[in-house]
């Protein structure tokens, strides 16, 4: 009992505290509505490709009440179906939180009745709980004690929605982490980026100013700490890349991508920034060439899944020595070809006036080139040694 | 008090009068009302035909009284010819679903008169 | 009981210099006897035992069961990182070596209400938190709290498993809630599924609304 009392008093303190401490606002905010650009089909495919799909990370072990596993005997057909389903599920788990502009509260009056003044000492809040309505269309109206009837403000609507149709994980009060500057800072300094973002998506609606603020804070901090890999293959990577592209600070992310040998992602990131800022450079043809040579993340993950259950002997029987070589090097001929195209595109970007950290990027490109050249030589040598024809 | 589904477990008699009314739930000193559709002749703690809302008369931390209304079903039952108890009619009037009940105007007027009287008394005494 | 944890922890400065004796007392209490420490410290042990018997007669020596002194969380956090802690508990959890004493085959469903009454340990077998006064349950002490959270379900382990007394368990629950609220303790946030049409909508519908 005393625990509940304790928590209740904690909550009450937060609600009643008059000047609730607010976070300092982040310096970078979307200056205009980012939604049309973000929902654009091309942007979405770019962001999804940049996010990648690492099944280990998407399906990492989570602490959920039921963590049981199931063993089954399956025919190859059933297994194939299961694989496809797993990829579908993973793609669903990578659903990006929407990026929309901040919604401004407007006062919408329904009626004003002076004869109703003082009919009650408090105001009344009416919520429509009709079944099957989406949250955004649910009407919440307030009758003030002076007789005016108006639509409720956004904050009340959110509170009522949470009261009558609770969202799992959302608290009725704002977690202290999001109200206390120091706590958020310590969480950021310990690189709990995914946790903060996950929690913010659950706690806030995408159109709330706090949500935008927290996202910008996290992304800005991330840009300084350069731990981009923590968010790779999570649902927040796309919004992050979009944020950097929008605010013209892609260079650190670009450097990280080059260093990790995700050249196609780097090219996509550059293309995205060209697209957002309407820079008159042709990126579409390059992207088409790359996409022709490379499979999408989902296809690649499916391929990996299929390969993972094959026994080594079987793999040799099916794919021959060629596949063995590909696995050993980690790249195929198509990859080498697409790398060539990407490198050209990236170098073009570095040479242009849009790149800010030219020296760093050039160095990274140079080292990568050397490594790639070595790999290519090894690749060719291996193929020759095994008598596989090289074209 | 055991919980029943909002669809209700009461028997539906075709010919009898239905009413939309409050049912007092909660406990001693803590009223809480369900807004339900039930047989007019029945006592409030009998099984109901359907629950169409709830009403919390005690103001919360934000000084609000919370009312939830399943407007679709309320309109359905009103269209079927269900009666309305006075408190329920008042509440629906305040919600803007129906015209405001005369009794609400009377209460408002009485409250205003009482406040004016008190103000006057204070002015004369000081 | 031996002047166990107190003597370890009186000054963390001394730990590195003379941790042998202190570690022995706690380890003997824990029932995890490291053979070499035991053989090294037989003489030492005798000395401190003599101290313990003297403590009843001389008021200058502090009472081992006295728990009125408030230990700050910071020193508890430091303790959890120290060599003394490592030697006492090893790689296990603070509760893993604890066994409840009870009559008969089955333990009572609930653990005891509290181990500390009127500022003193009132039982011969205090719970894992109460027996070591340098284990302070607080939201900042995440390393300690983490040991009481199931890695599978993410819930706080039951007192039937950890053997905490009811009071400590309640304090633990509060600490966990606070740590989660403060963002010091991470947990898996439920996945939120977005219905894009709610946020993006169709442009025609938007015009109708406004």
The unreliable regions of chain C are: 1-57, 204-210
CATH superfamily annotation of the largest domain in chain C = Ribosomal protein S18
Number of strands of chain A: 4
Q: Topology as H/E string of chain A?
A: HHHHHEEEEHHHHHHHHHHHHH
- The number of distinct structural domains of chain C comes to 2
What is the CATH topology of the largest domain in chain C?
Answer: 30s Ribosomal Protein S18
Integer average pLDDT of chain A: 86
Taken in chain order, the helices and strands of chain C follow as HHHHHHEEHHHHHH
Structural class of chain A: mainly alpha
Q: What does the radius of gyration of chain A come to?
A: 26 Å
Secondary-structure arrangement, i.e. CATH architecture of the largest domain in chain C: Irregular
Shape descriptor of chain C: elongated
What low-confidence regions of chain A span 5 or more consecutive residues with pLDDT below 50? 15-20
Oligomer: heterotrimer
| Strand portion of chain A | under 5%
Q: What summary fits the major beta sheet of chain C?
A: 2 strands, antiparallel
What is the CATH C level class of the largest domain in chain C, in words?
Answer: Few Secondary Structures
Biggest interface: chains and residue counts? A-C, 42 and 31 residues
> What is the straight-line distance between the termini of chain A?
76 Å
Short structural summary:
The complex is a heterotrimer of chains A (391), B (126) and C (210). Helices cover 58% and strands 5% of the residues of chain A.
Description:
- The complex is a heterotrimer of chains A (391), B (126) and C (210).
- Among the domains of chain A are: 33-60 and 75-103 and 228-391, no CATH class; 109-152, no CATH class.
- Chain A contains 18 helices and four strands.
- Chain A has helices at 2-16, 35-39, 41-51, 55-58, 76-93, 154-164, 176-179, 181-189, 193-203, 209-225, 237-246, 251-259, 263-277, 284-293, 297-309, 312-329, 333-351, 358-385; strands spanning 109-112, 123-128, 140-143, 148-151.
- A four-stranded antiparallel sheet of chain A has the order 1-4-3-2, covered by helices on one side.
- Residues 15-20 of chain A have low confidence and may be disordered.
- Chain B is of the alpha+beta class and 126 residues long.
- Chain B has helices at residues 71-79, 86-95, 102-125, and strands at 18-27, 30-39, 50-56, 64-69, 83-84.
- A five-stranded mixed sheet of chain B has the order 4-3-2-1-5.
- Chain B is elongated.
- The mean pLDDT of chain B is 92.
- A two-stranded antiparallel ribbon of chain C has the order 1-2.
- Chain C has twelve helices and two strands.
- Chain C has helices at 4-9, 13-30, 35-40, 42-57, 73-81, 83-89, 128-131, 142-146, 159-162, 166-182, 196-199, 203-209, and strands at residues 116-117, 120-121.
- In chain C, helix 2 (13-30) runs parallel beside helix 6 (83-89).
- With 210 residues, chain C is mostly helical.
- Chain C folds into two domains: 1-64, no CATH class; 65-210, 30s Ribosomal Protein S18 (Irregular), CATH 4.10.640.10.
- Chains in contact: A-B, A-C.
- The A-C interface holds A 2-3, 6-7, 10, 35, 39, 62-65, 67, 92-93, 95, 97-98, 100, 134-136, 167-169, 171, 175-177, 180, 183-184, 186-187, 192, 195-196, 198-199, 201-202, 206-207 and C 150-155, 170, 173-174, 177-178, 180-184, 186-200.
- Chain B: It is found in: Mitochondrion.
- Chain B: Keywords: Mitochondrion, Ribonucleoprotein, Ribosomal protein.
- Chain B: Belongs to the bacterial ribosomal protein bS16 family.
- Chain B: GO terms for molecular function: structural constituent of ribosome.
- Chain B: Pfam families: Ribosomal_S16.
